[in-house]
Amino acid sequence: FMYIIKKDLFGNPLFLKRILIVIIGLLTHNKFYRKKKININGTENIPKNIKKNVLFISNHQTYFLDAIGIIHVLNSTSNGNKDNIDNLSYLLKPKLNTYYLAAKETMKSGLLPKILSYTGAVLVERTWRKNGEKINRPINNHDINNINKALKHGWVITFPQGTTDSKGAVRKGTSHIIKKNQPIVIPIRIKNFNKRFEKKSLKVKNSSKSISICFKKPLKINYEVDTIDDITIKIKKSLEI
Predict the structure, then answer these.
(1) Is there a contact between 57 and 174 (Cβ–Cβ < 8 Å)?
(2) Pairing mode, if any, of strands 212-215 and 184-191?
(3) Is this prediction's pTM over 0.90?
(4) What sign does the CA torsion over 16, 21, 22, 28 have?
(5) Is 100 exposed, middle or buried (0-12, 13-18, 19+ CB in 10 A)?
(6) Residues facing 155 on adjacent strands
(7) Are 52 and 94 in contact (CB under 8 A)?
């Protein structure tokens, strides 16, 4: 009974989170695996014994399948696999303290994103765009506190560009998060997700396109010396933006 009522940091029941991870994992695995398998490398750079304050930063190409693909690999690696998502048994033992940053506007836009939110989304308000229009509003301190809480509790995935536009600038908000929390920062470079998948759904548009996820070595950051601008430049270089 205690297991059933236990919740994560943001009030989501853990038993529901586990069930949804299994269901979504089963529904999406073949999307990464059909015809040309996903090419995964660098999982030896994922910390094995560090359970919290790890930040994964990635370039961004689709609304949902970027994060889902990365979570597949993290769960597989946490269960002892290297550079593959072959054995689906990893879905039975997911890393439940893995979170990912997502725009509140996007995750409240329909049934699918609302369901996906229960799997570990940390919802944040964009400060530069709303409903497709450019805006300029102050950072929501509640959002920052939630991000800090998630890092103190586990692993967090974020997309520093905050947009699927490959030319989007790296937002300095990520650098501020890094400077404050001093996490281990693992860059991830994904390729061809936008060519294989529909941007705003879970649909495959071209299964013949090969895709890849590369986990790079942790960023070298001197937290006493490096400025926000220094960290931003390191993020940009590591993600090849």
Answers:
(1) yes
(2) antiparallel
(3) yes
(4) positive
(5) buried
(6) 54, 98
(7) no
Total length of the chain: 241
Write 227-236 long-range contacts (CB < 8 A, 24+).
Answer: 228/172, 228/175, 228/176, 228/179, 229/172, 229/175, 231/175, 231/178, 231/179, 232/170, 232/172, 232/174, 232/175, 235/57, 235/160, 235/170, 235/174, 235/175, 235/187, 236/170
What's the token pair of residue 141? Answer: 């301190």
| 126 alpha carbon, distance to own chain's centre | 16
Q: How far apart are CA 228 and CA 121, in angstroms?
A: 25
Tokens representing residue 186 in the block? 């693992």
C-alpha gyration radius of the chain = 17
- Structure token pair of residue 45: 């750079």
Q: Is 157 helix (H, G, I), strand (E, B) or coil?
A: strand
Token look-up 């944040």 returns: 124
pLDDT tens digits, 162-221: 889 998 899 999 999 999 999 999 999 999 999 999 999 999 999 889 999 999 999 999
